[in-house]
Amino acid sequence: MTPTNRDLRDEIRDYWSDRAATFDDDPGHRIDADMVAWQELFRRHLGDAQGRALLDLASGTGEIARLCRSLGFAVTGLDWSEPMLERARAKLPDVTFLQADAERTTLPSASMDVIVTRHLVWTLVEPTSAFAEWFRVLRPGGTLLIVDGDFVSRNLLGRIVQRLLPGGSPDATAAAGAARHKDILSRVHFSAGARADHVAGLLHAAGFDRIDIDTNLAPIHRAQSAQLGWRKSLLRRSEHRYAISATKPLGA
To answer: Which residues are the signal sequence here (predicted)?
Structure first.
């Protein structure tokens, strides 16, 4: 076998890079009719923006950056995938987007008032070191907001709804993508699913306090329902999805 310096993080970056061209076609990623519901969720946890410096980790095509800019934050986006960043920069030319690994940002200590991330935590290779890094980058009194979920384990309703989803044989490209996703998922820290209490415990160990687990994402799910269709909408509501906000103590 030929020696290689590639690791799991490289594979994760390349997987999302290959999905960049069609990423916004998925209503689960693109923020459209659900914008107001997302704004309400972010205001609930972050308060008024007041021009605070906000870092959008794993910013992808810039949807969360677009949301946060609409709220009045001074937004910086960060992603490791250049194809994702190309789309984010085209969408938001007045926002700064940086290329870096979200687990190793290289940003200055205490440089951000707010850090937000959507659907990143479940892919983390080393969440303990990632949360320590985010703690370092936040200013004392700053807020971290995580939006994520357990997309692996299913409750009874989820298993029933999944059986109702249209079947059929996927084409070769879709099948290869699914196989890559499954392989990557099997090797990340949260391979069995990113449960909110597990994530919250790791945040506490990293030094965060005032940790709030919020599972009231129903307004977002309702706003997405017309685009998703009733089967996928019901499946989404059956999943363990949540927002977690946490604060870096003032004396830290």
So the answer is: none
